[in-house]
Amino acid sequence: MAFNKRIKIKHLLDSGKVGEQVTLMGWVRTKRSNKNVAFIALNDGSTIHNYQVVADPNAISEDILKKVTTGACIKVQGEIVASQGSGQSTELTVKTIEILGEADPEKYPLQPKKHSLEFLREIAHLRMRTNTFGAVFRVRHALAFAVHKYFNDKGFFYIHTPIITASDAEGAGETFRVTTLDLKNPPLDEKGNIDYREDFFEREANLTVSGQLEGELAAMALSEIYTFGPTFRAENSNTTRHLAEFWMIEPEMAFYDAEDNQDLAENFLQYVISYALEYCKDDLDFLDKRAAEEDAGKKADQRSDMGLLERLQFVTQNDFERITYTEAIDILRNSKPNKKKKFNYLIEEWGADLQSEHERFLVENHFKKPVILTDYPKEIKSFYMKQNDDGKTVAAMDILFPGIGEIVGGSQREERLDKLTQRMDELDIPQEEMWWYLETRKFGATPHSGFGLGFERLVQFVTGMGNIRDVIAFPRTPGNVEF
Ligand code: ATP
Ligand code: MN
User: Fold this and answer.
1) Which of 25, 151, 198, 319 sees the fewest Cβ atoms within 10 Å?
2) What DSSP designation does 306 have?
3) Ligand 1: does its nearest atom lie under 6 Å from the Cβ of 471?
4) For residue 366, which phi and psi values (nearest 5 degrees)?
5) pLDDT 10s digit of each residue in the chain, 483 long?
6) Does ligand 1 have an atom closer than 6 angstroms to the CB of 172?
7) 8 Å CB contact between 456 and 414
């Protein structure tokens, strides 16, 4: 007989009927009991809601009931009855309880009390059993699903770009080396440098920092594609927005100019956020309250103007502000924090790179809505971005979100071979290594565009979690690779 004849708690809450006999399996959140009755709050992860299981201590062996403790995994069988308590409309009257896995209450680290997010990071192997992390990971799933649904419905094709690559031409960040060489005794070349010709790939290789370049190759054949895969950057920045391993979504489209690209990115972000609002209602209600409690503990000037749900609705219902880098610099130069020298990096001249304090000023104080910043100076952007006619700027776009800063980076790509190679020369990017990329500009080139969305930053925005380490199951950051 199959072991699993259980019904999920979500399903039970949606459509269970009084009088039905059901089997539930899940983890005990709490047990309250006296001589006559034991109330067990059971959670199986299918929903944020626990289901109330009611047992008669005189009908269940004492030995078993004793092992029903917080964290234990149990199988219960019984009948759905109308609940007499106020917290739920139905509950389960227990016929049998089976202990699937005990959890010694003296040793189980998760107690039915509030633990700090910092502490929970140290027990990442268990933290998904909390309401907060259960909610975060269900929302994360819904967003990932919405990403695929959005692109699939639009006729985009999902391309799996390589994780191991030989180029860091994009210069997006420090890379992680991939090697099978003996680090204690590496082969050396004539000059005494490590001889990568002896390595597995017979040249230097690293983990990918972006799938864009390969994505462009695919767009030159399938017209509209996207990638959604792991991305690695060995940036040694311990911020609340950076991971060493994160997931990036990179659509790339033939026949799109910069404006088409902006329209797509805006529509896409509004779609996936609306999807979460529609399908993750209970989890977002919980996260909305959690964020409000967290906010209440902050200083008045650091509290957000809107609650989480309000903010999500606002973003789906209002157009993003679109301004050029040049306009942004004017706003920033004349801003209060710049004049009063409150910024850590003062904005003095056109050409300055924008720091996250500037991005957040524009979004949170000035416009109070998402901002698409376009047409950056070419000096602070990548070689592959389309050069504008002014000779100074490129057709880049960054999308800035409240509380997050940059969530998307993208551009129209330079499809003119002469302009592209000239820029590569200026930046000392070797053309030989990029021969395959350059061939798309020789054979059937066309205007095309794309962007990269950091998936964890999106999950942060939607869940209201302040630290990126709390929206990925097992975060990798400098010094952290446990689990
Ligand atoms: P930042 O300036 O915030 O470091 P970036 O300019 O390096 O970002 P891009 O190279 O444009 O970012 O990457 C595209 C998107 O990937 C970013 O907009 C962001 O959402 C996400 N991203 C970049 N680096 C990281 C990281 N280390 N951890 C998580 N997400 C990241
Ligand atoms: Mn970066």
Assistant:
1) 319
2) S
3) no
4) -80, -60
5) 788 899 999 999 999 999 999 999 999 999 999 999 999 999 999 999 999 999 999 999 999 999 999 999 999 999 999 998 888 899 999 999 999 999 999 999 998 888 999 999 999 999 999 999 999 999 999 999 999 999 999 999 999 999 999 976 566 568 999 999 999 999 999 999 999 999 999 999 999 999 999 999 999 999 999 999 999 999 888 899 999 999 999 999 999 999 999 999 999 999 999 999 999 999 999 999 999 999 999 998 888 889 999 999 999 999 999 999 999 999 999 999 999 999 999 999 999 999 989 999 999 999 999 999 999 999 999 999 999 999 999 999 999 999 999 999 999 999 999 999 999 999 999 999 899 999 999 999 999 999 999 999 999 999 999 999 999 999 999 999 999
6) yes
7) no
Ligand nearest 232 Cα, by number? 1
- Cα–Cα distances in Å, from 314 out to 49, 239, 292, 369, 464? 27, 27, 17, 8, 14
For residues 199 and 187, give the distance between their C-alpha atoms in angstroms, rounded to a whole number. Answer: 9
| Helices marked H in 113-235 | 117-122, 131-153, 212-222
Give the residue, by CA position, lying nearest to ligand 1 atom 31. Answer: 454
Give the ligand at the shortest distance from the Cα of 236.
1
CA of 161 to the centre of ligand 2 (A): 20
Q: Quick check: CB of 408 below 6 Å from ligand 1?
A: yes
Closest-CA residue, ligand 1 atom 19, reads 454
From ligand 1's centre to the CA of 454, what distance in Å? 6
Asked whether 234 lines ligand 1 (CB < 6 A), one says no
472 lines ligand 1 (CB under 6 A): no
d(CA 391, ligand 1 centre) in Å? 26
Sign for the CA dihedral angle at 32, 34, 39, 43 comes to positive
